[in-house]
Design a protein that fits this description.
paralog of FGE (formylglycine-generating enzyme); globular; alpha+beta
Length: 276
């Protein structure tokens, strides 16, 4: 489920040389606009009888079955994934330090790859645990989206395979299938991605960074979830992660593909967006 081993929860104060960069990046923070997903039903999951046994339309695994028509009330979701500048601004406002993993990554890309602060400001937030993502959203008067909300916002009402429709991605539509040593993320700016946006205008819901959702992950939840506003299953071991990342292969970009990770997982492939 998780992409890498568990890492430390405690963070030391940033090294003296990094602190000015954290402040400069945080000052560039701009909240994502939100898009509205109107009330109504949508197709959630995959029906293997209608998708064939092979090809990208086939289910990734049994956890996305059976396909069901689910009704959701109106909600809003951030157009963009939470940015690194927004996340650092939140941490500094809480007098907290970024995780050791994030500090090491930032120091590396600043000193070795010479990435300027204004570029990092538009990166998606990463190395964020589920609890940290939830706290960020709550501080904004929002919350993490439920798994059903995330899927509807990503695919629309008629069961799109990908946010942009049913065609496989072409260059510029999604950031995925990248590999780099030392987990250096090959991400793009959170406020880019208009070409691959969902029917409701949400961006990067396939690739770039995978996203925490509110729900616990349960492999057979689709069999018994309620037809209206499903809240997710009872607590378990994993939290839901949706959308695939910059490292993912094509099947992980499907809007129906499900995944999960231990809630205190930190990874260069997992971030989040908020809803309300």
């Amino acid at each position: 489920m998780g992409a890498s081993p568990l890492t430390s929860q405690k963070a030391l104060p940033p090294r003296t040389e990094l602190a000015p960069h954290l402040d400069a990046i945080a000052k560039l923070a701009q909240s994502s606009p939100m898009v509205t997903v109107p009330e109504g039903s949508f197709l959630m999951g995959t029906n293997p009888r209608h998708s064939g046994r092979n090809g990208v339309a086939a289910p990734f695994d049994d956890t996305e079955q059976p396909q069901r028509r689910i009704w959701l009330g109106t909600f809003q979701i951030d157009r963009d994934e939470a940015s690194l500048s927004e996340y650092l601004s939140f941490l500094l406002g809480q007098h907290q330090s970024p995780s050791e993993e994030l500090q090491r990554l930032m120091w590396h890309v600043i000193t070795v790859h010479l990435l300027p602060d204004y570029v990092l400001a538009h990166w998606p937030a990463l190395y964020v645990t589920w609890e940290e993502a939830e706290k960020f959203c709550r501080a904004q008067g929002k919350r993490l989206p439920t798994e059903a909300e995330w899927e509807k916002a990503a695919r629309g009402s008629d069961g799109n395979l990908f946010p942009w429709g049913n065609n496989k991605p072409v260059p510029g539509v999604a950031m995925f299938g990248q590999h780099h040593m030392h987990e250096i993320p090959l991400v793009v700016a959170t406020d880019s991605g208009e070409e691959g946006q969902s029917p409701y205008g949400a961006r990067h819901m396939a690739g770039n960074i995978a996203e925490w959702v509110q729900d616990w992950f349960e492999i057979d939840y689709y069999v018994r979830m309620p037809e209206r506003n499903p809240p997710g299953p009872m607590p378990g071991r994993y939290k839901g992660v949706r959308g695939g990342s910059w490292k993912s292969n094509l099947p992980m970009l499907r809007t129906a593909t499900r995944n999960g990770a231990i809630p205190d997982q930190r990874a260069a492939t997992i971030g989040f967006r908020c809803a309300k």
